[in-house]
Amino acid sequence: MPLYEYVCVDCEAHFDALRAMSAADKPIACPKCGVENARRAISLFSAIGSNGVIAGNGGSCGSCTPSGSCATCASRSSR
Ligand SMILES: [Zn+2]
After folding, report:
1. Any bridge partners for residue 16, and if so which?
2. Structural domain range at position 62
């Protein structure tokens, strides 16, 4: 299961949680105040760029999707 970062709406506590992808955006209980009102926070390391690509987490060219299906990756992998 992937690790997601959450921030509590009530007390603004930040915490990480391992969750299934299907549950990533569902409310989760805050470990600090116990209120189930935490939202998923977007990590700085996986910030999504203006083109919708997740920076630093892409294919072999470093600027596309993990599947590596962009033209740059295709030209590299063909060699
Ligand atoms: Zn809280």
Report:
1. 5
2. 50-79
Is the same domain home to 1 and 27? yes
Q: Does the predicted model carry a pTM greater than 0.85?
A: no
CA of 46 to the centre of ligand 1 (A): 23
> Cα(15)–Cα(62) distance, rounded to whole angstroms?
28
What are 17-69's pLDDT values in tens digits? 999 999 988 999 999 999 999 999 865 544 455 555 554 445 556 666 666 56
Q: Are residues 37 and 68 in the same domain?
A: no
Domain count, the chain: 2
Q: Cα of 75 to ligand 1 centre, how many Å?
A: 48
The alpha carbon of 65 and the centre of ligand 1 are apart by a number of angstroms equal to: 34
